[in-house]
Structure formats: structure tokens, C-alpha cells
Amino acid sequence: MKLLENLQYRIVYALLWCLSLIPLRGLYFISDLISWILHDVVRYRRRVVHENLVSSFPEKTAHEIAVIERKYYSFLTDYAFETVKMLHMSRETILRRLRVENVELVDRAVARGQSVTLLLGHYCNWEWVSSLPLRFAPGCESAQVYHRLHNRAMDRVFMKIRTRFGAHNIEMADIMRSLIEWKRAGVPTVTGFIADQCPGLELHLFLDFLNHDTGVYTGPERIAKFLDSEVLFCHMSRPKRGEYVLRFVPLTTTPKKEPTFELTRRYLSMLEANIEEAPQYWLWSHRRWKRTRAEFMAHWGDQAEKMLSHL
Question: What is the DSSP string of 240-285?
Fold first, then answer.
């Protein structure tokens, strides 16, 4: 089995490496074709995307929803090819194509010995954000939390992509251990969390997000309070194809003093506003709202209110 997995990985990696040699302009040409196939021929998750958009933006007309939907499929395939391109992208290219407006906020926190928690969503090309360590001043360790992919070959490919520019790629189950080790060693950390996925039933908060009663992860807030780190939201935009702008928005420098759930509420509010600026760049094909409050209450019964009352 191990031999077959290694063979599969080598084949997949070789194919994607060859694909990454194509200039972005050529990859975008292929992306346009694949986007049309996914949207009009295969109809990949069309119902999920449409239902998510309609329920999130009830004020928009059918035509407006259709335009966003079409743009979303174009972005989805662009995202895929941009991510593959990272296998061959130079440091100079990624620094030029992902512009960071105020990296000094991170550098100042690290200089005073404070760790930083970065909160972002599945918005714009979140894979390119793994290149942030190239911009930080020396003296910190950069990490991102990830969930292992089911396909082992693709998981190994994404591990290469996400660690290529200096970030540590750490599974959620191991993140606290790693952060504690760095904290004991006196090393400030910059850790990125994508916390807009659909959680399981072990959650502690429901809030209104994109016109839905939404169960959300509160782990990043708990970790920020444990580290007493500065917390920044990563606002993303895409001025044009192949270029992104990231701007850090301060949430707090003293998370331990914040009321329970306040950081999570503020983060989701900022992400919602970011999505509303250009909805086509969020991950609409994800079944974000499959977990309901009713399901949560039925699962936990008498313990439900207690679960929702604390971090």
C-alpha cells in the first residue's frame, strides 16, 4: 500500500509540476475552459452554490445571483490553477502578486515579544497567504492550521505548496502542542486560522452570518487568549486577475480582556463585510450550513445551553 501511495504521489506531483511551468496567462486560458465545463456541462455543485447565494443575499435579483454564480466558477478554477502555480512560482513573483499593505503591524508585535493570531476565511486565494513568512522580520515562527486531505497524494502535494515559503503546516490536533513549545522557548509565533468552515457538533456559539443562523468555530479565540497574542483580521481583495491585496485589520492587542465570544463575533462580522464587497471570491460550493441549531440542540439535549455558555 505504501508503495502504491508513493507512486501515486510521484505521478500527481510530476503532472502538477509540469502544469505549473505554464505562465499564468496560459493557465488562465485553461481555467476559462474548465470553468465553462464545470458550470455549464458538469454543473458541479450548481444547486449548492445557487441555494447558498440566494439564501445569503435575499435582496438580490435572480440576474444578480446568476452573475455572481458565473463569476464564482471562474474564480474557483482560477484559484485551483493559481495554487498549482505555487509549485514553480519564485519568491519575487509571489511578493509582487500578493501585496501586503501593513506588514509592520506583525513586525511590531513580534519585536515586543508578542505572538500574533491571524484570522481569515476561504476568500480570495487563501493558499497564497502561506507566503506571508517571506515578509515578516526575523525572530518569529510562522504556522498555519490545516486539515489533512483524504487523498494522501494530494495531501502531500498541498503540504509542499503550503510550506514552500517558510510556513509550518500543522494539523489542528497538534497546534496547541507546537504553540506551547514555541512559547516555552520564548519564540513569538504568527499563526493563521481559517475558521469559516462548517464545524461539527462540538461547538460553543451560533451567530448570524450571511443571513443564516450559523454554528462557528471558537478555537482561534481560545488559542489567542491562551497566548495573549495580538489578533489581526486578514482583509483580502483581488484588484485584477493574478493579483491580490492583503490588509491586516486589528481586532485586539489584549485578547484576555475581551468578553467571551467577542473576538469570534468581530472576526465573522469583518469576514461577512469582506465577502459582501465581492461575493464571487468566497467558497460557495461548500455546504456551509448543513449543521443547524435544531440538530445541535437535539444532539446535546440538557447539556446544550451549557455548551453554548462558555469557551
Answer: ETTEEEEEEEEEES-GGGSPTTHHHHHHHHHHHHHHHHSGGGB-TT
- How confident is the model over 107-142, as pLDDT tens digits? 999 999 999 999 999 999 999 999 999 999 999 999
Q: Cα dist. 310→138, 199, 217, 220, 227 in Å?
A: 37, 17, 13, 14, 18
Cell of 310: 462558555
| Radius of gyration, CA atoms only, the chain | 20
Q: In this structure, are residues 106 and 116 in contact, taking their beta carbons and an 8 Å threshold?
A: yes
Helix (H) or strand (E) holding 181: helix 172-184
Single-letter amino acid code for the residue at 110: V
Strand-by-strand arrangement of the 243-252 sheet: 98-100, 243-252, 230-240, 116-120, 189-194, 141-146, 168-171
Which grid cell is 49? 452554490
Residue 146 CA to residue 222 CA, distance in Å, equals 17
Sorted by sequence, the CB contacts under 8 Å of residue 128 that are 6+ apart come out as 82, 83, 86, 94, 97, 98, 244
For the chain, the maximum distance between any two Cα atoms, rounded to a whole number of angstroms, is 58
pLDDT at 68: 98
